[in-house]
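Second opinion, please. Pick holes in both lines of this record:
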Amino acid sequence: MKWKLIIFSLIATLLLTNLPLKVEASVSVSARNAILMEQESGRVLFEKKANEKRRIASITKIMTAILAIESGKLEEMVKVSDRAEGTEGSSLYLKKNEKIKLEDLVYGLMLRSGNDAAVAIAEHVGGSLEGFVFLMNQKADEIGMANSHFANPHGLDDSENHYSTAYDMAILTKYAM
């Protein structure tokens, strides 16, 4: 019995001393910047240049949708402006003076990536495009997006002042969820 205990102790010691202290996972991500954040805690599980400022595109529409939903105006009718109708890129093909419920514009914004819907939402919720952009940046500060700045509600790449980081976008999507 004594020999069995000694042999077991030796085997256990050999096994434990040969185990690596830290196991590294092999992860390959083709994106220049990336992050994987746990939803509940916000703990970062993986990152690749997550705090590097980059231009952002249609992911901007998440912030636009949040502000529209939080405005409490989803049942209101929105009158489409000339500016909204003339917005380039992906579109709901809104027409000037058309009236559409804000809730329907939010669906069009998120499901069809409607840039015209983004402008119509911004003008209605923020009083003007510029007023809405102010609200976007205010909300970004409020939820902890320290390295982001919004210049429009749709993400069309028309400004050097429209940027964020993978980390801040994770904060935004965590908040949205």
User: Anything to note?
Assistant: The chain has seven helices and six strands. Residues 78 and 129 are 14 Å apart (CA to CA). The beta strands are 34-37, 44-48, 54-55, 77-79, 99-101, 163-164.
